[in-house]
Amino acid sequence: MRSRWVILSWVLALSAGLPLLGVWLAGKPVASYLEFPPTTQFVAHEPFSWPVFTGLVAVIVGMLAPFVMRMLRATSLDAGSAADQNHVVRITFHERRVSLSRFPWWGWLPVVWTMGWWLLAWTRFEWMQPLQPHTFTPLWLGYIGVVNALTCGRTGHCMLLHRPRYFLSLFPLSAAFWWFFEYLNRFVQNWHYLGGGELTEWEYLVRATLPFATVLPAVLGTAELLTTCPRLSAGLDQFVRIDFTQRRQWGWGLVGVAGAGLFCIGLWPDYTFSLVWVAPLLLITAQQLIRDEPTIFREAGHGDWRTLWAVGLAALVCGWFWEMWNFYSLARWEYAVPFVQRFKVFEMPLLGYAGYLPFGLECLAVADLCLSRKFSGGVAYYRALEPGTDLAQRKPTVAER
Predict the structure, then answer these.
(1) Of 27, 122, 128, 322, which sits most exposed with the smallest number of CB within 10 A?
(2) Is 163 in a helix, a strand, or coil?
(3) How many alpha carbons lie under 13 Å from residue 51 in its C-beta half-sphere?
(4) Total domains in the fold of the chain
(5) Contact assessment for residue 174 and residue 132, using Cβ atoms and an 8 Å cutoff
(6) Are the C-beta atoms of residues 256 and 279 closer than 8 Å to each other?
(7) Nearest-CA neighbor of 333 among 113, 185, 219?
(8) Distance CA 359, CA 233 (A)
(9) What tens-digit pLDDT sequence spans the chain (401 residues)?
(10) Domain containing 154: what range?
């Protein structure tokens, strides 16, 4: 417990202090970056650049291609071995899990709830005007209920019903977690909010905290659902291994890289904005390595990337719904991303969606660091989906709850 809070304290101190140090050394007014509510826009962004856009596309494709090729190869091998008896049994078991008849009755409540709030978010009924800026939180509460119902229908349990303490603890943690990114955004100013009207400090705090609280439950709930679909990460159980045998050396090296990145955010925000989504994850991992604590990459050390792929993909799925529901809502956000502000999908520039992948890893890292109970998806689901194992009959331990 003490080690966990020491790690968290170091991560927060470095993440909060280093960008401010960069701002101060650059001769910029520090007070502007601490303004609350954070409404002033004072960072002038670079225009669209084809060389930068092309280079980032090459980097993103180069990083994702090995994963996609590995999954396609594993899927083709599975198809070629379909005559194998064990394979047939496994797929039959899996198909029994996905039967729509197993969708729980209570799952239809959040389905109807979400559809209703979606309609209200995208319309402008006169009687709805007082609630029109507040549709985001009900929408995402409905989404969270739907993904938990889908997980329950596939496996017989979900965090909403079978791990209620873990599920509820994600909400306050999520609020603090996203406020942290709101702070880092003050230095790069890649997004800003519209349609909320003139708000006092307390009004802004309350109205922002409520939707922020839905981020972690949504991402980790989606990840839990995706881990029940083995084909979405086929072949990633035997992939590249990450060697962290020299843990302290790796740790201090990552501290240096992440610290330099955060410092440079204050100096050159347009050239280092992407580090907002990477540096905090590197700091958490670095401190865990230095203190010989487990990291979210522990399974990848044995070549198993399924959990990491699932949470990254889950954040991308949530990102699609965030951007889609935001598009026609009254209270919404817009982006200003240097060098790549073109080819929008809803309000988000196309390449911006790549940021959701490391963000998913940060969601997992923060939840595992701050909560005594751990994420229940990942490898555990794959093992449970073996023939002869019925998750519906398995009762969670006290630690899992």
Answers:
(1) 27
(2) coil
(3) 1
(4) 1
(5) no
(6) no
(7) 185
(8) 18
(9) 678 899 999 999 999 999 999 999 999 999 999 999 888 888 889 999 999 999 999 999 999 999 999 999 998 877 666 545 454 434 333 434 444 558 999 999 999 999 999 999 999 999 999 999 999 999 999 999 999 999 999 988 899 999 999 999 999 999 999 999 999 999 999 999 997 668 899 999 999 999 999 999 999 999 999 999 989 999 999 999 988 888 999 999 999 999 999 999 999 999 999 999 999 999 999 999 999 999 999 999 999 999 999 999 999 999 999 999 999 999 999 999 999 999 999 999 999 999 999 999 999 999 999 998 878 665 454 345 445 544 444 444 333 44
(10) 35-244+295-393
- Residue 266 located in a structural domain: no
β-sheet bridge partners, residue 335: 191
For 31, the 3-state DSSP assignment is helix
| Strand 348-349 versus strand 191-194 pairing type | unpaired
Q: How many whole angstroms separate alpha carbon 231 and alpha carbon 233?
A: 5
Rounded to 5 degrees, what are φ and ψ at 167?
-60, -50
Phi, psi of 222 (to 5 degrees): -65, -40
Residue 238, SS3 per DSSP: coil
Please choose, from the candidates 244, 147, 168, 186, the residue with its C-alpha nearest in 3D space to the C-alpha of residue 43: 186
A 10 A CB-CB count for 188 gives 23
Alpha carbon 38 to its chain's center = 23
Question: How many angstroms separate the CA atoms of 194 and 231, rounded?
Answer: 40
Does residue 401 lie within any of the structural domains?
no
As given in the structure block, the two tokens for residue 150 are 């889908």
Report yes or no: 18 and 266 within 8 Å, Cβ to Cβ. yes
16, part of any domain: no
Residue 209 tokens read as 């905290």
Nearest to 303 by CA among 243, 245, 237, 361: 237
**What is the longest distance spanned by two Cα atoms in the chain?**
70
φ, ψ of residue 166 to 5 degrees: the values are: -65, -45
The answer to whether position 17 is within a domain reads no
